[in-house]
Design goal:
Blueprint lengths: L4 E5 L2 E8 L2 E9 L3 H7 L7 E8 L3 E3 L3 E2 L6 H8 L1 H11 L4 H4 L21 H7 L6 H7 L3 H21 L3 H4 L2 E8 L2 E8 L1 H9 L4 E6 L6 E3 L7 H4 L5 H13 L3 H7 L7
Parallel strand pairs: 3-4, 5-8, 7-9, 7-10
Antiparallel strand pairs: 1-2, 2-3, 4-9, 5-6, 7-8
Helix pairs in contact: 2-3, 2-9, 3-7, 7-9
């Protein structure tokens, strides 16, 4: 294997490193800010397959739960056990987008499916998670003890595998997602590899390697809200859509956690 060659491009540290199980080169890119990640979203790659190491506190789970520097149900379940998942599915999960993202009351469009995000069109969503119309029903079923036990088992098995074999994205795939960007701020929304991201975050990794999704936009900016598919189709009001987007930047999970402790348990 060739030696490591270190490059620096516009203040961003790059490492070109051949991978034993892949004939292509992986370009490990280390960034420290969301602004640097935004720059990378415009790059094109031919020779290299990029893997971007970003600060763990930039990663966010759907629902605006930060992987570090906040509260995240998957990370907390690894740290504290299955009771966290049981609480998450029975108590935390809200009945509306208004409750999930702590939106102001009576915002137009806040009553649509919990699983819709206004910046993704149906085709993109369905490729990643089929039959969105079934997701609310599926979520209700997730409150059952069998699902919760299965979910916890998957988390612990992923952790055991990584502890024994190391983290192997070339074998099992990269953590994938897209950048949500507002001015100089941003979050990397994880779409694929949520459990792996949780394991690395729970293990205290300061930076976590990710790649941009191949089926989703690399970067989404709040200034383009009027062009988002579910806004143009009228499913979401633009003001509501931007408020949901801002929740991913401004919330870290602790706010939702505190709110949930103040409301009655859902039936």
């Amino acid at each position: 294997m060739k030696g490591v060659v270190r490059l620096v491009r516009n203040g961003i540290d790059l490492v070109d490193r051949p991978q034993a199980r892949d004939t292509r080169l992986v370009e490990d890119v280390h960034v420290d800010t969301a602004a640097q990640l935004e720059e990378l979203s415009f790059w094109t790659y031919k020779k290299y397959r990029p893997r971007i190491w970003i600060p763990a506190n930039l990663l966010v789970l759907q629902g605006a739960f930060r992987y570090q520097g906040g509260w995240n149900p998957l990370v907390e379940a690894l740290n504290q056990g299955e009771d966290i998942l049981r609480w998450y599915y029975h108590v935390f999960r809200r009945r509306s987008l208004e409750e999930m993202y702590l939106l102001p009351p009576n915002m137009p469009g806040a009553d649509v499916s919990l699983w819709r995000m206004p910046w993704f069109g149906r085709d993109l969503v369905s490729q990643h998670a089929p039959q969105e119309k079934e997701e609310d029903k599926e979520h209700r079923e997730r409150r059952g003890p069998k699902y919760i036990a299965s979910h916890m088992r998957r988390l612990t098995q992923t952790r055991t595998s990584i502890l024994k074999q190391g983290y192997q994205p070339n074998r099992y795939g990269d953590i994938q997602g897209c950048l949500l960007q507002r001015g100089g701020e941003g979050r990397f929304l994880v779409h694929s590899g949520k459990h792996r991201a949780a394991v690395l975050a729970a293990a205290g990794w300061v930076k976590i390697p990710v790649t941009f999704s191949l089926i989703l936009p690399r970067s989404i900016n709040e200034t383009t809200a009027h062009s988002w598919p579910f806004v143009k189709s009228g499913i979401f009001d633009a003001r509501t859509a931007v408020s949901i987007f801002n929740s991913y930047i401004d919330l870290d999970g602790t706010q939702q956690f505190s709110f949930s402790e103040r409301v009655p348990q859902l039936g």
